[in-house]
Amino acid sequence: MTLTIWTYDWVPPPPRGHVRDIRLRWACEEAGLPYRIATVRFEDRTGPDHLARQPFAQVPALQDGDIQLFESGACLLHLAKRSESLMPGDAKGRAETLEWVIAGLNSVEMVSVPWWFIGLSSPPENPLEGWLTSRLARLDAVLATRDYLAANRFTVADLLMADILRVPKLRAALIDYPAIQAYLTRILDRPAFRKSLQDQLDHFATADAARAKG
Amino acid sequence: MTLTIWTYDWVPPPPRGHVRDIRLRWACEEAGLPYRIATVRFEDRTGPDHLARQPFAQVPALQDGDIQLFESGACLLHLAKRSESLMPGDAKGRAETLEWVIAGLNSVEMVSVPWWFIGLSSPPENPLEGWLTSRLARLDAVLATRDYLAANRFTVADLLMADILRVPKLRAALIDYPAIQAYLTRILDRPAFRKSLQDQLDHFATADAARAKG
Which of A114, A198, B41, B158 holds its CA 20 to 30 A away from the CA of B140? Predict the structure, then answer.
């Protein structure tokens, strides 16, 4: 059964390459799972049809037969059950993958996204700076001891963590964390990531062309 | 096999009742899963033994036989697989529970915890205020249509969301969101929550007494 990944038809240039459908594209590419892209008009994202699919008016959402899911983290864990290339089959490996997916979402991104958001208005001091650097220091200590977060191999936890860390402003802040930098370079060098990134950029470029034509 | 929930031996008064081991206590109480509490000295939380268990120096962690897990969200999803009182057995119900657990962690708490943290220093304006209220408005719209987040019944997603929302400062901000308020009252009225809260308060009160004795 072909999976359907929902994203916007178009977004303004700044978030292109970072819209979170890329996490699902990347997972499907890693696992060789066939998928198609479906879109909601950016201007209709707070309309009832999209809110029924994603109650916070965000993307992505995933359709897998009669299962519909929102939240990129939930979609990744769902996809991971379909392929051992995303998550090991043994209980210990699954537990490690799960804890590091949640650590990405709730220990790193819970600080890095609000830090990034506050930084958009260029305040003289970012009140989340100290908290962010303490989290990055802990993560750096972990990655100084191993190449992957979970189960001694690439998993969907690395895919998620790398996508969290590659946000340009955050990536610039990683200069003090050599183990994270080496890790990020290693994970982003995967062909499945590079294809997903290009596919997302192409998707929005095509939308520009269509909108220009009217 | 008895589960082990790791928490601190003692914490200063302000976070008592909100240390995240309560999420795991509550889940075990709901499911009737036997568990014991193990502790790390609060002063030793950044030591190597605890960092091996929880690389961000936080609690809780969970031991289930030879499986060890950190991150309360990961521990909840792990426990949920052990009891249908926490998560339905069918694929659709599991997907709904999963997406709402992740929504709690990454769409609500990703805003509410940094908002709370910034509020501790009482700035004239909280830069996350607008983002928080937009998330609460979306959640209120969902809860105006149903009693539980997932699968038309209580799940671990409600347990998590209620624990996120009951933080005192956030709870005070819920006055504009009647559906969330009614939901929170309903979920927190569960005997398993009330027992877990009392158990955590007793745990730290006992630690006070032991420390006073020296």
Answer: A114
Residue B212 lies in a domain: no
Quote the domain boundaries for residue B96. Answer: 91-190
**Phi, psi (degrees; rounded to nearest 5) at B20:** -75, -5
- Structure tokens, B41: 């000295």
Query: Are A26 and A76 found together in one domain?
Result: yes
Instruction: Name the residue type at position A138.
Output: R
Residues B76 and B98 in one domain: no
User: Which residues in chain B touch residue A78, judged by CB atoms under 8 angstroms apart?
Assistant: 95, 98
From B57, B68, B118, residue closest to A127, measured CB to CB: B118
What number is the ipTM of this complex?
0.97
CB B103 within 8 A of CB A70: yes
Chain A residues touching residue B95 (CB < 8 angstroms):
67-69, 74, 78
> Do B123 and A128 count as a contact with CB atoms less than 8 A apart?
no
Rounded to whole angstroms, the Cα distance separating A150 from B210 reads 38
Residue B213: inside a domain? no
Total structural domains within chain B: 2
- Tell the residue number behind the tokens 């340009």, with chain if given: A168
pLDDT at A214: 74
